[in-house]
Amino acid sequence: MSGPDAWDGDLAALLREVDGWAAGLARTLDELARERLEGTDATGAVRARVSGTGRLTGLDIDARGLRDLDHEGVAWAVKEAVAAARSALGDRLTELTGGPVDGATDPLAAHVERVMREG
Question: Is residue 32 within 8 Å of 21, Cβ to Cβ?
């Protein structure tokens, strides 16, 4: 394959693929933004909720479960619950996007390899 006409065809196909991928990603992110995810600390006494954009939307603390902790222990339990909720968000995003991208699943891998090979 050589000449400007060959590259025009490849470029147009690549742009269509990128547009489709970007539109799919936008739909996925919109769907995720409407979700609410939860996480708890190791004791289960603190439960945090985050939006699909990672914003903290709620925090429930069972005072009985934390009565033996000082203020620093309570702070760590809250941080742990928030981190668990955000980790659940990351897991959900991975689930919605079909997992981490690698050479076997990357829809653009063939095009990138061709450009690298052919200049």
Answer: no
Q: What confidence tens digit (pLDDT) does each residue in 21-58 have?
A: 889 888 888 888 899 999 999 999 999 999 988 899 99
Q: How far apart are CA 79 and CA 93, in angstroms?
A: 21
| Strand blocks (E) in 16-93 | 36-40, 46-51, 56-61
The pTM of the whole model exceeds 0.90 = no
Structure token digits, residue 73: 């222990």
47 burial type by CB count under 10 A (0-12 exposed, 13-18 middle, 19+ buried) = middle
Q: Does domain 4-118 have CATH number 3.40.50.720?
A: no
Q: Where are the domains of the chain?
A: 4-118
